[in-house]
Amino acid sequence: MKRLLTLMIFLISISAFSQPNEKMKERIKAQKIAFITEWIKLTPEEAQKFWPIYNAYEESLEKIRSEDLNTIRTQMMTNPGMSDAEADVLLEKFTKAENDTHDAKIKLIEDLKKILPSYKIIKLKASENAFNKRLLERLKEFRGKQGNRN
Predict the structure, then answer these.
(1) pTM over cut 0.70
(2) Looking at residue 43, what DSSP letter applies?
């Protein structure tokens, strides 16, 4: 089962990188769902309760990244010679974004404690790390293959 899941993730990963951005995001999300579900061994009942909570968490992180952190990054890049006053404002925005990220993680844990045993919540972080590592490995492989074509 694990080998089949790993093979499916690998094949989907490779094909996902050749698709337009939105399709790639959808495929990666589907892979992540399968990976996490298998890794932490969610029962169907747990999965039904888990995914709405986790998806809300992911949406809140994406909002922080796209609205706050990208704005901060853009301001840093477009104004490298900013004044201390401008840098202070940017640091405040950055601190707020970091605090919002922390708060989202705390809310996730609190919400998950209502539906999952603690060991599965701990395994969630390990599964996210393992998934991201595999995804980066696939990306490196893909880029290596692309580089060899040129």
Answers:
(1) yes
(2) -
Helix (H, G, I), strand (E, B) or coil at 34: helix
Question: Where does 64-150 have alpha helices with state H?
Answer: 70-78, 84-113, 118-149
- Reduced to 3 states (helix: H, G, I; strand: E, B; else coil), residue 7 is helix
Contact criterion met (CB below 8 Å) for 105 and 128:
no
86: Cα separation from own chain's centroid: 30
Helices 84-113 and 44-63: angle between axes, nearest 10 degrees: 170
Angle at 128 between CA 118 and CA 53, to 5 degrees: 60
- CA–CA separation, 139 vs 92, rounded Å? 34
Over residues 88-131, the pLDDT tens digits come to 998 999 999 999 999 999 999 999 999 999 999 999 999 999 99
Spatial neighbors of 38 by CB under 8 A, at least 6 apart, are 1, 2, 5
Report whether 79 contacts 86 (CB < 8 A).
yes
Distances from the Cα of 80 to the Cα of 31, 50, 67, 98, 141, angstroms: 39, 43, 20, 22, 34
- Average pLDDT, whole number, for the chain? 86
